[in-house]
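Q: Protein A?
A:
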Amino acid sequence: MTGNPQTNSRSDGAKLDLAADPGARDALRTAVERGLPSTIADLCALVRIPSVSWAAFDPSRVAASADAVAALVRELGVFESVEIVQARIPGGTELGQPAILASRPARKGRPTVLLYAHHDVQPPGRDEDWESDPFTPTVRGDRLYGRGAADDKAGVMAHVASIRALVAAVGADFDLGIALFIEGEEEFGSRSFATFLDENRESLRGDVIVVADSNNWDINTPAITTALRGNVTLRLTVRTLAHASHSGMFGGAVPDAMLATIKLLATLYQDDGSVAVAGLTSIDVPTPEYSEAQLRAETGLLPGVTPIGHGSILSRIWSQPALTITGIDAPTVDNASNTLTPSVSVRVSTRIAPGQSAVEAATAIETHLRENAPFGAVVEIDDVDTGEPFLVDTSGWAVTEARSAMTAAWGVPPIDIGVGGSIPFIADLVRVFPTAQILVTGVEDPDSRAHSPNESLHLGVFKRAVLSEAFLLGSLNERVEP
C-alpha cells in the first residue's frame, strides 16, 4: 500500500457494521464532520488550478491538476497502485488528457466499487461576468464560488473524503475493493475514454460504478439520476454565393446565405418551440411536480418570455428532444457591410431522449437539413459528434443501498430524476462492464450553475453528498457477494 494509513477511530478495533451497530453510522458521520475543513481546503486548492481541457488552453494546467489529485489519492494510503495515465484518442496517435487510476482488490467476498469523477473544467468565459475571480475559490454565504467548485472537483473530493471517512472509522485494512478513475477530459468530449476503458479494463472492473457528476433535486433533497439525454452536435454550413455581392445592387433577387440559414433553422422548430425533426423520438415517463415559477427562478427567464414546448416541464427537459443553436459564424455587427453574405456556419446541438440511438438521431437531423434547404442552397455538414442517452436499471441491490445511504445522510429519501444534459461515456461503461450496476449521483443543486459564470457549490449539499458516499462505502464493505 502507498501512503500512511490513518488511525482507526474505534478503540476496540471492531468491524463497522452499519446494519447491526447503531453507532456505526455515527462513526462515519463524525469522521466526515471532522474531516470537512481539510476537505474544503483541498477542494479550494484544486479549484485554483485552471485545468481547462479544451484544445486552445494550456495542457500543463490539466497535468498539474492530475498531479494534485494523484497526491491526494496516494495520501489515502489504501490503494495498491496510483497512476497518472493517458490513453490514445481513436483515429490517430494523439494522447488524451491525463487521468488518475487507482485500485485495491476486494477481499473475503466483498464487492468492488468503481468511483468516477473528472478533474478538468469548462473554460471560465469572460472575467467580467464573474462576481469573483473564477479560479480564486471564494465563499459567499453558504456557497463556494469558482470554476470547477461544483463540476466536478467537488465530485473528486467527495470520493476522496468518503474514503478518508471510511479509513478513519475502520482503518485502512478494510475488505471492500475500490477502483478510482478521475478523468481529465470530460469537458472536452472524453475523446480517449473508450480507449482508456479498453486498455485498463481489469483495473477498472467493479460490481458497482458510482458516477459523481450529476445533480440533486434541491439543497434539502438528494437525487439519483435515472435518465440522461444523449447528444448530437454538428457544424452546419449554408452557401448560396461564390463571393459576396453588393446588397443594394442585387438584394431582392439573390438569396444570401444568412436568409437561407434563418429559413432553414426555422424549419427545425414547431410553433411552440418544440423540435420538428421527423425521426427524433420521446419517451413517456412520470415526472415530479415542477412549476413554471420554479423554472423561471432557476433559469432567469425574463418577464414576459414564455417557456417553450409541450407536456410537463420536466418531460420537456428529461424525455423529449431539444435543439439549440449554440454558435454562429457570420459577419459581426461592428464589421457589417452592405453585402450579401456568401456562407454562414452554425453549431447545432441536439439533445436526444433516452431510448433512441445517437446514430439514428444524427441521420434524422442530417436528412431534415438537406431536405429543407431553401432556394437550392448548398448544405454542408461536418464535425459531427454523438453521445448515447442512458436509462438506469433501478432494480438492483446497489440502488437500494444507495437510497438507504442517502436517506440516512440527508434525512429524507432521494428522488429519481432525469437530467437534460448528457454523460455520453456511460454508454462506454455499459459496453465494457455490462454486469456492473451504475449509480449516477452528484454534488450539484439547481443553483450551482455548472458551465456558467459564478459556478458554485452549496457547502451543506457537499457535506451531505460526502456523508452519503461514506455510508454507501461502509455498507458495501460489510456486504458479502453471493
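Q: Protein B?
A:
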Amino acid sequence: MIVQTYKNMLQAKSVIRECAEFATRRGQEIGYENVFDYSLGNPSVPVPDAFTEHTIRLLETQESNQLHGYSPSVGLPSFRTKVAESLNRRFDMNYTAAHIFPTSGAAGALAHAIRCVAEAGDEILTFAPFFPEYNPYVNLTGAVLKVVPADTETFQINFEEFEEMLNEKTAAVLINTPNNPSGIVYSAETLKRLADILTQRAAAYGHDIFLISDEPYREIIFDRAEAPYVSKFYKNTLSCYSYSKSLSLPGERIGYVAVNPECTDAELLVPIMAQISRGIGHNCPTSLIMRGVEDVVDLTSDMSVYETNMNLLYDKLTELGFTVVRPGGTFYIFPKALEDDAKVFCKKALKYDLVLVPSDSFGVSGYFRMAYCIDTEKVVRSLDALERFVETEYPDR
C-alpha cells in the first residue's frame, strides 16, 4: 500500500511552486517577459568565469575516472580541505577537513544535520517567518517542528515567545540568516542572546541543544555589511551551506555541513553523517562539481544586481504606503499586504501580471514575498504595474 503521508502531501503543494506554474502558463499567453514573476528564488546572475574555466580545464586534462568516479562517503579530501581553509581564513575558525561533510546543496546539509541531533519525538524550534520546506525536512524524520511566532517589527528573534516554547524536548534550534523570506540578517546582538539562552537551558536540562544554521544566502549582504558567522557565537553549531546562491549553481546541488570544532563529539559527526547517507539514499555530490568548486571557494558571482533590485522595490513599496522591513541581504523582500488576507491580496495582483507569494506558508499571515532575482529592466517595468494595482484595488489605503 502506498504510504498515506506522501499521498496527503500531493494535496498540499508548495504555494511557491503553484505561483511559479501560474507564471509559466501566463507567459505562454502573453510572453514571459510581460509577466512580473516574483515567485521563485532562482539565482539570475551568471556563474563566475573562473568556475567555468576551471571546470573545462578539469574535463580536458584529468582522467575520466577521477572526475566521474565514486568519491569517498565523506567526500573528496581536497574539497573538504579547501572549504575548511576558506572558512578559517574568512571567519577566524579552526576547522579541519574532518569537520566538513559535502552534501547535495543546503537541503542535503539540513537533512544530515537534523538527523545527527534529533530523533523521533524530539522538538526542533524555528522562527517565523521561515522557509516552508522546513516542515517536511523536520517532520518526516519523526522529530517535530515547532514555530516561534514572528517579531514583525524587526523580524529578529521573538525572544519572549522563544523562551516560553523552549523545553526539555528541544533537541535543536533551526535558524536561517540571512533570512528567506524576510531578507533580514540576524545581528550579533541577536546571536549572542540566542547563544546565551541555549547555553543556560542546555545546562538546566542536562543535554545538548544544537543550533542548526541554514546559511545559503551568507554572501548576499547589502550596504557593504557582513553577516555575523553564527558558529562564532555558539559552540554546538552545525553550519549548513550551499553554493547555489554565491556561485549561482543551484542545479549542481553542491553544499556542505561544517561542524564547529568545539561541538560535542565534533570528531564523530562527519562519520555519523556518512552513515545517515546510507539510510536516506544520499551520497556526497558529484566528483566533478566538488573539484570544480574547490578552486573557487572564495569567489562569488557578481551579485550587485540584487541590491539594485531591492532598493528599487523598497523605495516604490514605501512610496505606495506599504509597511516593509528593509532587507539586509538575500534576494527577497517581505512587505505587509494591504489587506488582512494575503492570499486574496496576491490573487488580485495576478490581474496586473504581478506574481507574488502569500505569506501564510512562511508562518506569518498578512504579508507577501517577492523574489527579485530577475533582470533589473523587468523590475523597473514592474513598478508601473505595482502602482496601477495599488491605486486601482486599494484607492483608500
